[in-house]
Amino acid sequence: MSSIFDDRPLPPAAQLLGWRFVALDRARQEIEVGFTADDRFLNPAGHVQGGFIAAMLDDTLGPALFASTDGRIFAPTISLTTNFVAAARPGRFTGRGRVVALGKTIAHLAGELYDGEGRLIATATATARAMPAQAVLSEA
Question: Residue 96: beta bridge partners?
């Protein structure tokens, strides 16, 4: 499936997380993306460290807004609240994110992260600054 992300280089953080586009429901402003966590992501207990899980959710929510606005709006995160539901082992993950509300300068986003067996690993909500993508991305 082609997407707005096809013509853009994958940022280094997204590369590290194994980010890949899966699906977009533009009408519902929902995205599905995939991630891959390997042994580099593990804490001493052998679980994926929580910061990586939060990063996966952050890299689900921002793209939900970017993709659902056809790349017009970029969403730098202002706040991210992550709730950890279950310990995660290395492997594949699925992030599902959506735009809850979009104002002139602020976006409210929400999403979930599932492991390869479909178990809910974590949820997140975020507040992001809604900015014209062209202005932000041309600075990079």
Answer: 32, 112
Q: Can you say how many angstroms the Cα of residue 61 is from the centroid of all Cα atoms in its chain?
A: 4
Longest dimension (CA), the chain: 43
Alpha carbons 136 and 4: distance in angstroms, whole number = 16
Decide: 99 and 107 in contact? Cβ < 8 Å.
yes
Write the CB contacts of 16 (distance below 8 Å, at least 6 apart in sequence): none
Instruction: List beta partners, residue 42.
Output: 48
Comparing C-alpha atoms, which of 93, 99, 95, 103 is closest to residue 123? Answer: 95
Residue ranges for the chain with pLDDT beneath 70: 1, 138-140
pTM above 0.90, yes or no: yes
